[in-house]
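2024-03-11 09:14:02 DEBUG pipeline.ingest accepted 1 chain
2024-03-11 09:14:02 DEBUG pipeline.ingest length=154
2024-03-11 09:14:03 DEBUG pipeline.predict start
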Amino acid sequence: MAEVPQLILADEAETARVAAALAAVLRPGDIVALSGELGAGKTSLARGVMAALGWHGEVPSPTYTLVQSYDPPDVRVPVWHIDLYRLDSPDEADALGLFETDAALLIEWPERLGARLPAEALRLHIAGSGDARRRLTWEAPKAWEGRWPPVFPK
């Protein structure tokens, strides 16, 4: 059985480093699915991506707005930060027009989409919460080959 690829996110600095690596390879049209329990760090990772893309303002959790958009010139790549926690069914996502934009999508709670999550999405899962070390695992489809997992300088 193949070993599950993983990174240990020991602290906020490590989460920011991984977020910056993701931001460095993020392209318009990319889909990043961020899953994990409440408090696992999905929004923290998204905030790190936005900061690394050049956003200097607050990055609120889109729990109630569902979608928060960020556009150039404030960021290098247009991004929709999406939180699907409050959806009751995948059908409700249709009204959001998620797959009708050229923006990169950072989707929290992607499991709410069911089978509608595109196969080319980079699927990141964060396990752990609170002050504990977190474990980041992933499924990187062919569209992410050569871009994920990140390569960090020694």
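2024-03-11 09:14:41 DEBUG pipeline.report The chain has a mean pLDDT of 92.
2024-03-11 09:14:41 DEBUG pipeline.predict end
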